[in-house]
Amino acid sequence: MPYNKNKQQAFQAAQQAFVQLEDAYQQLDEQSPDYGHQTKRVHEELNEAEQIIEKAYVVATEHQKHQLDIYANELMNVKYELFK
């Protein structure tokens, strides 16, 4: 049973990292004097989310892997938007 618990914890950590990235990304405001700081935070959240999702993918169930794939695609979209 601990193995299943680890799967669930890893998946929940990935979900949380993704939500934190979304929050940081949605708060980006090019007109804000804090835009540089906001951008740095998004980069940090992006890097952290990528690492956590990668680790979760190793122990994920098939259903969780599907959701992690969706998160990974969204991360790529954020990355594209940041670096275009």
From TrEMBL:
<feature type="coiled-coil region">
    <location>
        <begin position="4"/>
        <end position="31"/>
    </location>
</feature>
<protein>
    <recommendedName>
        <fullName>DUF2524 family protein</fullName>
    </recommendedName>
</protein>
<keyword id="KW-0175">Coiled coil</keyword>
